Amino acid sequence: MTMVGGNTHPNDTQTNDRALIAHLLRRAGFGATPAELDKYCSWGYDATVEWLLHPEAQPGLDEDIIERYYIDWKESRNIEGALTETVFRMNGNAATRPLQEKVALFWHGVFATGLAKVLHEKTMLNQIDLFREHGLGSFQPLLERLARDPAMIFWLDNNFNHKDAINENWGRELLELFSMGVGMDGKENYTEDDVQEAARAFTGWTIDDDNVASIPFGKTPWLFRYDPDDHDDGEKTFLGETGNFNGDDIIEIICRQPSTARFISRHMYNFFVADDVQVPAWQSTPPADPEAIAILEAEYFRSGYDIRSMLRTMFTSDFFKSETARFARVKSPAEVVVGTLHLVGDLKFPRAGVMDTALECRYMNQDLLNPPSVEGWHTGKEWIDSGSMVERINFVADELGNVEHSGVRSMVDALTSRGPTMDANGIVDGCLELLGHVVLRDDNRTALVAQAAEMLENGADAESVILNALRMIGSTREYQFA
Amino acid sequence: MTTVVEYPLSVAGMFQYHNVIGLLSGSGPGFSGPVSLALGRDGLLYVASRANPNQPEGVRVTRCTFDGDYVGEFSNWGEGPGQFIWITEIRFGPDGNVYLSDENTHRISVFTPEGAFLHCWGEFGADPGQLNRPSGMAFAPDGTLLVVDSLNNRVQRYTTDGEYLAGWGAEGEGPGQFRMPWAVAVDATGDVYVTDWRNNRVQKFDPAGGYITEFDGRDGGDGFERPNGLTVDNDGCIYVCDWQNDRVQVLAPDGRVMDTLIGHSGTSKWARTFLNANPDIEAKLNAATQNIELKRRFYRPRAVTVSDDGLVFVADCYRHRVQIYRRLG
Fold first, then answer.
1. How many C-beta atoms lie closer than 10 Å to residue A318's C-beta?
2. Quick one: closest CA in B to A69, which residue?
3. pTM beyond 0.90
4. Which of B77, B276, B290 to probe the A interface (max A CBs under 10 A)?
């Protein structure tokens, strides 16, 4: 596919840097506004990576203001409200803590937990907060916290995992979907006996309050509780090691496994670098880029399972920066919605109607906090069907065409200020640049330029032509790729 | 937890827990995020519920007795006349009518006490008289209406028909300046008290808006943390919902902290009826021992008012109830 881009900036080197940093922000965040790209370019690529990796150094959201207007969120008591809060927070942090939000979304997809069963929205939101707070740390304590997370315990029935009657649901998914995977390189990673022994180790890990009723006076938080009387403290043999293992011992053994390094690396690659085959195929299908996976696996062990270190290695690697990695992923619905909201500057301050906007994720097939199964969402081309594609195009076109949004106003003003150089080519390429250095196929770009030229010939003012170009670019196939 | 027969005292012992009215409900007996309350001349309690976008039917004004007998409700969600998106404050005017503010439509709406919509006024903007998220309201002794124009960081005075008379305030931290003020109250002399929300203080002004003093609610411990609803009783004592501290501070007229209410809720009449019909839920509530104390306390108290005979009504917003205390002595 021959690609041409909106590379109209007078300084080619700087333009290339901007395009690369725009690529970084699409993956490590939800894209960047033109003003943010200016800032990141002034820092340089590596410094921007470091900034992204340390969201804790940046200010958080104004929780008081959020709570003042969205009074139902503190004890969020319906699925739509929880989804809305998640989208609002991702968008709110997109300028200051983008990687924190992206990592939370990443782990939400890996450790897929859903309100279809949990039915306690605040508890689910607390799990997302866990990913925000600890998702960049070491994988081992992250798993330890996950095993104590009330939403996960309820989701996978560990509150029904008793000393005298084990429930293996959590033990199985911990191995199959949360750490090692069923197999790799054509071999199985564990046995049925390992599943049973893992489940035994987590007996007595339960929750104190599993009430899901809002009535009479709202919901109260579910809390982790360890019941030593219900814990099987007997000897267990797990992955060839024997001892009186408790849950944390199992996690410690899991984290030492090469299969865990492979599993996490493949997830990271699929989420941050390029679409790959889905999890069920990983046992028999090798990675799309084995060398990249090997680099990530090595960093997993070198760093002591540190996710931040793995991401640093990935973002600064040639395989991430390469031209072939750019626009190699279909955006998830959350990326489409949040990325577009951030670009146009919508929903940065609480307003009514936020739920209608946030529900666009659901309409595009990603019902945040309510994944289709414990396997999470299938990604890549599987995001797309005719219905979701229409939703994507309509949403993006509506947002990009609304000049009342501050971000759209800024883009229009920036282009109109370029004056007479803004012919049809200039308008289209300028829009591509300001939307994050989007790259169009030749024929699509040619069609947009022709349309802009026709509008100008018919006397349309520059603002109308720019808004139309923004809408049309947002409607292209290419805009759906990150 | 669900059957409490004790009547505990406030921190300094000046107030005693008296009763609770409430139940999370989108219609009928109950509230859904009560954000404001007022006492009618008809002896009824009027409670404004803000609800949430997924429960728009919960937006309403509920009328009930002080003992928790449901009388009726009026208004609903929407942008039409007599409807609300973000209902915020309820006050009775000197004309006996009910005045309600809406932070989303930037309007003040007027109803009869029985709930018949009369008219509304308000225009979005930043010019004098215009509004940007009107929140708190209070009537002055002269019958004029003070409205907190929260995102314009000012207080404006109107006639009951919405004619703009005067205003004061600007964004900032100095005397007479505000950062997203929330509520307003007026004492018997006409002095005005405003919860200066993001500055964590209550400012006191003379009737013309001249700055007099300010209070931070500090009693040797923490001061106000985002104070919102407030009222002044007949003795000049100031009751402030100390929102993020989940308490109500009672100040002497000079601003000294006299007492603190933290919430001691028992089970309301409406909740009792619900739990009797749902014993499984009551069993789960009782089994969750780590949360029992939590459920009795205020959770983001949002509005407070005081009756002439010393009953203190607190809108316990996130618990969907009104806790009532009685002033002792």
1. 10
2. B86
3. yes
4. B290
